[in-house]
Amino acid sequence: MQPLPRADWALFLDIDGTLIEHADHPEGVEIPEYLPDLLTVLQTSLGGAVALVSGRSIDWMDHRLAPARLPAAGQHGAEIRLAPDAPSVPIPTPKWRKPLEQTLEREMAAWPGVYIEHKPLSLAVHYRAVPESGDEIMAKVVEASARIGGEVEFLKGRFVVELRQSGHDKGTAVDTLMGSAIFTGRKPVFLGDDVTDEDGFRAARAVGGLAIAVGPRPTTQADFRLATPEDVRKWLGDIPQALERVPS
Ligand SMILES: O=P(O)(O)OC[C@H]1O[C@H](O[C@H]2O[C@H](CO)[C@@H](O)[C@H](O)[C@H]2O)[C@H](O)[C@@H](O)[C@@H]1O
Ligand SMILES: [Mg+2]
């Protein structure tokens, strides 16, 4: 059973594992051809209140989801764009980023198959190719970061350790977006599949919104659940028509 869509919703959408299926490599993901159009139509039917909230960068979203262009939070809240035509506002580049990147490139060579994703304000160490070494890799990443110092936070996601500047997450992103003109006064509904989405769930529910978990990952915060990204796309795609039927 899914919630009945409401015209006063503000939708916050995670990308990987929610809007699109996972792939072996971050750049191997496939964007369904109809997805940009689906998002644009959805945006119009909700008065613009549809945001992407992802570990990906906003540049990546604009590029891969073009011509759709939405309000967005990228790199786990480290950059925010309050409206489609507004500039993205990034945090300053963390001091630890460059030295840590160099150290990790060196040390992760011990695990062939590990891929380090260099994002402008964060790093992601992907170990999908060697899942059995996840704990060891995590320990190494934490140790290297401690040596370099700085306010780094570690997030263990799906076969990935994300390194981001502390103080920003998907929850702070939802709070910031909810305080902006397009979203204010609406009911936040956050869709996500991974542990990093828990902050978004919490922020949405704290102001009377909903959390919709995607996939099988257990969470105590889900008000509803959709099984797959395909189900998410179908459900989102039906919202504009459903809203036309709902008396406002
Ligand atoms: O917050 P999200 O939109 O879910 O993004 C989270 C991270 O997603 C990407 O990594 C994950 O998806 C890859 C493609 O399916 C997969 O190969 C990898 O194992 C996953 O961890 C992306 O590469 C990261 O930058 C995002 O932070
Ligand atoms: Mg995800």
Structural class of the secondary elements? alpha/beta
Number of helices: 7
The helix-strand sequence is EHEHEEEHEEHEEHEHEEH
- The total of beta strands comes to 12
Spatial shape: globular
Q: Please report the distance between the alpha carbons of the first and last residues.
A: 22 Å
**Bound small-molecule species:** the ligand O=P(O)(O)OC[C@H]1O[C@H](O[C@H]2O[C@H](CO)[C@@H](O)[C@H](O)[C@H]2O)[C@H](O)[C@@H](O)[C@@H]1O, magnesium ion
The name CATH uses for the topology of the largest domain is Rossmann fold
Radius of gyration: 18 Å
The second-level CATH architecture of the largest domain is 3-Layer(aba) Sandwich
Our count of domains comes out at: 2
Structure description:
32% of the residues lie in helices and 21% in strands. It has 248 residues and is α/β, with parallel strands linked by helices. The protein folds into two domains: 9-91 and 168-245, HAD superfamily/HAD-like (Rossmann fold, 3-Layer(aba) Sandwich), CATH 3.40.50; 97-165, Alpha-Beta Plaits (2-Layer Sandwich). Helix 2 (58-65) links the parallel strand 2 (50-53) and strand 3. One of its GO terms (molecular function) is metal ion binding. Its cofactor is Mg(2+). One of its GO terms (biological process) is trehalose biosynthetic process. Removes the phosphate from trehalose 6-phosphate to produce free trehalose.
Nutshell version of this structure?
Belongs to the trehalose phosphatase family. The chain is of the alpha/beta class.
